[in-house]
Amino acid sequence: MRAGTVRLAIDSRIDQVHMIGWAVRGVCAAIAMSEKDAYQVELCIVEAVNNAIEHAYASEAGHEVSVVVSVAGGRITL
User: Fold this and answer.
1) Is the model's pLDDT at 1 over the cut of 80?
2) Which of 14, 26, 52, 66 has the maximal Cβ count within 10 Å?
């Protein structure tokens, strides 16, 4: 399995959070994670990004929200 890191960034808008979820789900699929586990990881990252937008930026657009996704040894780190 190949290791690597990717940085994902969106504007601090709730309507953009799904993009992070889709990307993370794609990484989960690439490391052959079960569908159930991939869904749970996607849900966790979507909730974390939603919370960052709501609590750090008071749901105000115009701020960058980034997530770093790393894969090594069959594990994913967010």
Assistant:
1) no
2) 52
